[in-house]
Protein: beta-galactosidase
Organism: Kingdonia uniflora
Amino acid sequence: MWTENWTGWYKNWGGKDPSRPVGDIAYAVALFFQSGGTLTNYYMYHGGTNFGRTSGIYITTSYNYDAPLDEYGNLRQPKWGHLKGLHTAIIMLKKVLTEGNVSTTNVGVGVNATIYSANGTSGCFLSNKNATSSATVTFQGNQYCLPAWSVSILPDCKKEVYNTAKVRSNLDQAKTALEALIKREEKKREVMESEVSLQRIQMKYTDLHNLLCLPYRFDLSSITLTS
């Protein structure tokens, strides 16, 4: 459990605006979940304001903290979009992350592949811990290019839907991850609809069977015979 993942820092009077690159934040979060983490809390995700003298000595009243949402609620891009893409990708792995078995293997210098598996389903992380050099690796028959100091997320262990260092394409990454998530949910819905249809057919034929098997009864007491 990670209780305080700093997205920035305080701003001092006369000092520069503090900033933490979103690629570094995303890398830390992805690596945390790759290593078995279960919960991360951002400090701050939404900036605020300390009015009057409540901010502290030499600290400005603005508590923006370089957060994905500033103190007015505005989106701070690309930080907001890049982190949204990250968590969209992680959510796609929620089943295997919480219920699966995990194994990690080295696939290159400073490069690790982690596989989470549960009930025939698997999801993978590829991490490059080299701070200055990218890496091209082959994993399960496919080739991947990992920028320096980055983590790639593969919800099906085949297709990369997100990489922490590819910040400029964060909107495309979020779109890719969201489309994959929607596709997965649609498949679940199709299976559920098929099961419901099958149940309805079974109920229909069960009712028909019961109807055909009902004994016929005739009330002869009300019949009058006349010549």
Residues 2-179 form one domain. Helices lie at 22-34, 79-91, 94-99, 170-212. The mean pLDDT is 87.
